[in-house]
Amino acid sequence: MKNITIILILISFVFACQDETETPTQSNIPTSYSIEGKWRLRDADNQLYIFQDGKKYTVYCREEVCNWDTFTIASASPNVGTYTFENDTLTINQQGPGGVSKLGGLATYNCDGNVLTIEHKNLHMGSEYDEVIYRLGYKLEDCTE
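^ that's the sequence the OP posted. Answer follows.
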């Protein structure tokens, strides 16, 4: 009986000491999302951002009901900005009437890459705010994250 107890203890140590390094699976591989495409602004019903080929375009709609699918970069305001998205930081150099403004900050994707929160910190006239944008066609109220 003593031998069986010792064997069971040894077996439990062998299994307990096995390498528990996770192998990559679909659930633990970091997901990368692209910012390219059309994005609506949570706090501006009449605006759309289009990120395309390293440029950020802003489209304004003056209609009561906007068909955002029909808007393209040809519809955008002339103040086009360039952007970079490196690691988790979005930086936008926005051309405006007063010159170039630097915008952006830490950017966090939520809801399977459909919602992006940008933490603007002290880049534009000393203001700090979070901007939430979401992909065209996505219902923001569906995001529970």
